């Protein structure tokens, strides 16, 4: 079967499978393709359902491995996944491969040491990354099963693996998929993106051992290309000032400024700012207190695919009080931060 | 104004949030310049009752517009549904 079959929408395939003008073989092929495409599209949903089911019956304790395996594949500028396995990727002469291995391992360590989490799914899931995806590809993504990194066009962006916050961001989409299971539109979409930025930037600060005052709170600072820099841009997003004119993707700062249908990379601005304000007010290292509250809000509750930002805000307010009863300033900081963005 | 021979394409979203004030990714194709096979692939993207497909985390979406009779018809689909010749018609730019 040709892989181009998968780009044909299911409804079209189903129509073709019943088209009397087509040969019997073509009708059968369309039917088979529809079945396989549908199975592929459902794979992620089923993974999520399995995650919920295993949690419900209490078999999450079954660890696949005490520490996740980290694997890197090379797409060699094509878009077929996962690509060719890179042997001994940690010591590969391909700097993108060795960096991806090193930083992905570091993210696994970050989640393990700081939050006691074993990999993306909590039970040691292998962390799989594909590098050199496509040609001049200006993107990185999590496709429901693995990380994918483009090399950038070397104009607007460089290699997306050059940003450790990018790697932390993508892996956190995997964590969200296995925990809160947030949708990717509306309030939930903005929260989904914000959580990836929060944990991506926390990972960046943790690797540099920076406190909240020394951190720059920029997302994508390390992947900007020469054209973007020449024009005065410094980042994709600035968590400390989402509306920053030097950001390639300036965001709203208040919840009320979020409009229906807004791309989640823009609606994440207000919750990003709430996280930043909480961290700044509490002081110290972002992952020590506020990060712990955000982690518990993400992982300590049943899935909530259509969660509203207000619900998430109230959850972190409550958790701040419960987790730090001897330090009421933490709950005050979190409460004030959400209030400042209008929640 | 888009002419009747044009297919206009805009790539949106991704980690960078293309389609915002600065990051753009746009292109166009001349329908008369496409092979019969490619034209069929375009037609398959445009069934009348097409739903917007579910976006993937940080995946690109494509907004594709063409004339259908006297009306402009626009769809928005995720990257894996878009044929490679349409994907490669866009160019990223900074505004
Ligand atoms: Zn993302």
Strand and helix map with partners:
The complex is a heterodimer of chains A (343) and B (95).
Chain A: H1 10-17, H2 24-56, E1 70-74, E2 84-85, H3 95-115, E3 127-131, E4 140-142, E5 147-149, H4 164-177, H5 186-208, E6 218-219, H6 226-230, E7 237-238, H7 264-267, H8 269-282, H9 290-299, H10 309-323, H11 328-340
Parallel strand pairs in A: 1-3, 3-5
Antiparallel strand pairs in A: 1-2, 4-5, 6-7
Helix pairs in contact in A: 1-2, 3-4, 4-5, 5-8, 8-11, 9-10, 10-11
Chain B: E1 6-13, E2 23-30, H1 36-45, E3 60-68, E4 71-78, H2 84-87, E5 91-94
Antiparallel strand pairs in B: 1-2, 1-3, 2-5, 3-4
Bound molecules: zinc ion.
Protein model, in words:
- The complex is a heterodimer of chains A (343) and B (95).
- Chain A is α/β, with parallel strands linked by helices and 343 residues long.
- Chain A has two domains: 10-177, Elastase, domain 1, CATH 3.10.170.10; 186-340, Neutral Protease Domain 2 (Neutral Protease, domain 2, Orthogonal Bundle), CATH 1.10.390.10.
- Helix content of chain A is 47%, strand content 6%.
- Chain A is built from eleven helices and seven strands.
- Chain A has helices at residues 10-17, 24-56, 95-115, 164-177, 186-208, 226-230, 264-267, 269-282, 290-299, 309-323, 328-340; strands at residues 70-74, 84-85, 127-131, 140-142, 147-149, 218-219, 237-238.
- Chain A has a five-stranded mixed sheet, covered by helices on one side. Chain A has a two-stranded antiparallel sheet with strand order 6-7.
- In chain A, a hairpin with a 4-residue loop joins strand 4 and strand 5.
- Chain B is mainly beta and 95 residues long.
- Chain B has one domain.
- Chain B has two helices and five strands; from the N terminus they run E-E-H-E-E-H-E.
- Chain B has helices at 36-45, 84-87, and strands spanning 6-13, 23-30, 60-68, 71-78, 91-94.
- In chain B, strands 4-3-1-2-5 form a five-stranded antiparallel sheet, with no helix packed on it.
- In chain B, a hairpin with a 2-residue loop joins strand 3 (60-68) and strand 4.
- The radius of gyration of chain B is 13 Å and the shape is globular.
- The interface between A and B is large, with 44 and 35 residues.
- The structure holds zinc ion (ZN).
- Zinc ion sits between chains A (169, 173, 193, 196) and B (15, 57-58).
């Amino acid at each position: 079967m040709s892989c181009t079959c998968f780009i044909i929408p299911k409804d079209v395939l189903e129509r073709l499978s019943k088209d009397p003008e087509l040969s019997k073989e073509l009708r059968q092929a369309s039917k088979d393709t529809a079945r396989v495409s549908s199975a592929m599209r459902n794979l992620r949903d089923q993974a999520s359902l399995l995650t919920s089911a295993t949690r419900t019956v209490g078999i999450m304790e079954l660890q696949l491995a005490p520490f996740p395996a980290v694997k890197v594949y090379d797409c060699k500028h094509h878009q077929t996944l996962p690509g060719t396995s890179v042997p001994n990727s940690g010591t590969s002469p391909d700097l993108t491969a060795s960096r991806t291995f090193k930083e992905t391992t570091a993210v696994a360590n970050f989640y393990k040491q700081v939050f006691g989490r074993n990999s993306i799914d909590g039970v040691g899931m292998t962390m799989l990354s594909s590098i050199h995806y496509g040609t001049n590809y200006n993107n990185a993504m999590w496709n429901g099963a693995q990380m994918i990194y483009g090399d950038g066009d070397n104009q607007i962006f460089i290699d997306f693996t050059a940003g450790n916050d990018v790697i932390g961001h993508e892996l956190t989409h995997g964590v969200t998929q296995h925990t809160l299971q947030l949708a990717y539109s509306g309030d939930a979409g903005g929260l989904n993106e914000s959580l990836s930025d929060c944990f991506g930037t926390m990972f960046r600060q943790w690797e540099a051992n920076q406190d909240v005052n020394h951190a720059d709170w920029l997302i994508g600072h390390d992947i900007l290309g020469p054209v973007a820099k020449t024009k005065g841009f410094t980042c994709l997003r600035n968590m400390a000032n989402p509306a920053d004119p030097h950001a390639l993707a300036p965001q709203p700062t208040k919840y009320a400024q979020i409009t229906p249908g807004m791309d989640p990379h823009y609606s994440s601005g207000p919750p990003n700012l709430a996280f930043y304000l909480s961290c700044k007010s509490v002081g110290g290292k972002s992952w020590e207190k506020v990060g712990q509250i955000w982690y518990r809000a993400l992982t300590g509750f049943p899935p909530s695919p259509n969660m509203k930002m207000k619900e998430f805000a109230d959850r972190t307010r409550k958790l701040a009080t419960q987790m730090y009863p001897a330090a009421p300033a933490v709950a005050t900081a979190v409460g004030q931060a959400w209030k400042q963005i209008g929640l | 104004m888009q002419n009747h021979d044009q297919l206009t394409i805009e790539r949106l979203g991704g980690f960078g949030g293309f389609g915002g004030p600065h990051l753009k990714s746009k292109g166009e194709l001349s329908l008369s310049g496409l092979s019969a096979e490619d034209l069929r692939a375009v037609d398959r993207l445009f069934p009348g009752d097409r739903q917007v497909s579910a976006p993937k985390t940080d995946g690109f979406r494509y907004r594709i517009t063409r004339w259908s009779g006297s009306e402009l018809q626009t769809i928005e689909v995720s990257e894996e549904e878009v044929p490679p010749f349409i994907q490669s018609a866009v160019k990223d730019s900074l505004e």
